[in-house]
Amino acid sequence: MRHISLPKIPYDATAVRPAWFDLPPVVRDAIGVRLGSPITSAVSAGGGFTRAFAAVLTTSAGDRVFVKAAQRSDPTAGWYAREAAVTAALPPEVPAARPRWTLAEAGYFVLCLDAIDGAMPALPWTQEALDAVLRAWSMSAAALAEPTEQLIALGMPPLADLLRDDLSWWSRIAAGQMPMPAVSDRVAGHLTELAGLERALPALTAGSGMLHGDLRVDNVLLDREGTAWLCDWTWPCLGPAWFDVVTLLVTAYASGLDADALLIPWRAPADGVDGALAALSGYWLVQAANGPTGASPHSGQHHLFSGEHALAWLAERRGW
Fold first, then answer.
1. Hey, is 183 helix, strand or coil?
2. pLDDT reported for residue 150
3. pLDDT tens-digit readout, 160-172
4. How far apart are CA 302 and CA 160, in angstroms?
5. Cα torsion for 282, 287, 290, 291, to the nearest 10°?
6. Burial 169-198, CB ≥16 within 10 A → b, else e
7. How many CB atoms lie within 10 A of CB 82?
8. What interhelical angle do 299-318 and 270-289 show, nearest 10?
């Protein structure tokens, strides 16, 4: 087993969010009215990188729900609205929390979802936890291989288009459009190869199946029975199911597990895996180099940790 690497801040402690009483009273009152009972407890979600409200609320009647809220002027409100539409349309085989309702009040958008009684998997991954998540995605990918008309109507972009538009950073670096992020001289010497892997990737990711689009450890919950639930369905796209597995397995690689062996059942093309790792590492490392954003201050750590391990996995696969 390789050396195990962990982020300095655990993924379940990266959030910087407003608390329940930071929401305007009129918004809190509207949420209480929709739930039918006063709120007696509000436990903020510890994971994630947005600065919007997200918490498990418990009412005096014993009801538990997961509520997200953001000002409508914040792009996060649009993400929550999309999550509501996507999760409402998911087939029953997909283990994901379903929305109960949404509301607009005092300039806020509010999404109420079923609460999952579970926790984010801890790093390093255990084989049992990772197997549970891979089973959940396998079931989901099978159910989403032919998305329903309702899902298609939401306008999911092809993964190949996203790769060309948003995940071609090594190509831009090679073209002199931006500086090289902090990588070893050995890796920097393979810049032409990295850019070539990126450019070849879109042709290897054709597919009409629906992807989660952001499958990673902090978008998963494990319930008390060990069943995995897939969260934060904000960025679905159309492509091959193995791409989401590569994204997920970056932290498995950092955990010292044999990520390549775990990929075998997904029949991912070798050049596709290498291209995915190149594209993902370029995106994450450039984001880390860009410095602080309006997101959680710990987002930079996530980008650097993920980018370095995606690149290390790629270098191991390519024999660099």
1. coil
2. 97
3. 999 999 999 999 9
4. 24
5. -140
6. bbbebbeeeeeebebeeebeebeebbbbbb
7. 17
8. 150
Peptide bond into 92 cis (omega under 30): no
Residue 113: strand, helix, or coil: strand
Within 36-82, strands assigned E span 39-44, 53-59, 64-71
DSSP assigned state of 70: E
Whats the size of the chain, residue-wise? 320
Instruction: For residues 82 and 151, give the distance between their C-alpha atoms in angstroms, rounded to a whole number.
Output: 11
Please state the φ and ψ torsions of residue 180, each to the nearest 5 degrees: -70, 130
CB atoms within 10 A of CB 61: 10
In angstroms, what CA-CA distances link 74 with 81, 195, 231? 12, 34, 21
pLDDT in tens, 271-299: 999 999 999 999 999 999 998 787 899 99
Q: Is the distance from CB of 285 to CB of 181 less than 8 angstroms? A: yes
Spell out the domains of the chain, with CATH numbers in brackets: 11-117 (3.30.200.20), 119-318 (3.90.1200)
What is the model's pTM? 0.96
Q: In what helix (H) or strand (E) does residue 138 lie, and over which residues does it extend?
A: helix 127-143
Residue 88 buriedness (CB in 10 A; 0-12 / 13-18 / 19+): middle
Specify the DSSP class assigned to residue 256: T
The answer to whether 196 and 278 have CB atoms below 8 angstroms apart is no
